[in-house]
Amino acid sequence: LQQALRQVMNPIFDAQFSGYSNGFRPGKSAHDAVKQAQRYIQDGLRWVVDLDLERFFDRVNHDMLMARVARKVTDKILLTLIRAYLNAGVRVNGKWEHSREGTPQGGPFSPLLANILLDDLDKELIGRGLRFVRYADDCNIFVASKRAGERVMESVSRFVEGKLKLKVNREKSAVARPWHRKFLGFSFRSQKQATIRIAPKSLSAFKERIRELTNRTWPISMEERINRLNRYLMGWLGYFRLAPAKTHFQTLDQWIRRRLRRCLWKQWKRVRTRIRELRALGVPKWACFKMANSRRGAWEMSRNTNNALPTSYWEAKGLKSLLSRYLELC
After folding, report:
1. In terms of DSSP H, where are the helices of the chain?
2. Tens digits of per-residue pLDDT, 241-259?
């Protein structure tokens, strides 16, 4: 039902949306938003007002939202249906709770409703002559100086809280250099070209997920582990390929293969098993005995088995390479 509503209403509203809005719109993407931000920096707007809306999807005022929907939709049955959807409530710990504000996250209709409400913010910023880019509730405004940024932060926050009845998270919002902030998982370098880069927090989140998938105590087969890794790696690269990060991808490939070697070493628990497996990989007999009887930990041995389990071994097992796929996409 929500999808049907979205398909009918999206063409009605999307034609009136600002060109600065890139989230959940046909023909637009997060990459478009990041590239637009890069152009602003290249043009000399080297300060950013990073506006964080606190729990946006939980705080949308139903009356204000419905008033904006009613500007384009006059069918009373449809308006009643949308209101019922907003008021449907949620189950928390098995108990139903009434929805007095907010739109349910994850629903196919919610992103359109978010854009309808925040279109007023877009129009306000355009009216002030500001250069900005927005993706859903992530909004970055680019200015030429810190002082101008502080003025914009204060006035725009008043508009958001007063006119739209939303809450600005003062702790997470900031006026800063773009290369000190994260926008949609990306950041920028401080040189004139403002080269796009993967934000440090995004890399940390990536590594944390890889650690989960290559946890040596996780009792799954290597085939299944590699399948799950491949799905995550290719999805992650599909998004972050926008950043020229060849060196990063090469380093991450090496790190992932080392973690997989540690998993294998952990699986080869017995000395005789290690000897058998190493011999099958073509390791000299004397080296097999030395490595199999080593008292070093699994992480240290994952480095020592690099020659026995080279890149070609993992390619044969089906492991996809970030670097190889990135070069193909380029």
Report:
1. 2-14, 30-42, 56-59, 62-69, 76-86, 110-127, 146-163, 200-213, 222-240, 246-267, 271-280, 285-292, 298-304, 311-316, 322-329
2. 999 999 999 999 999 999 9
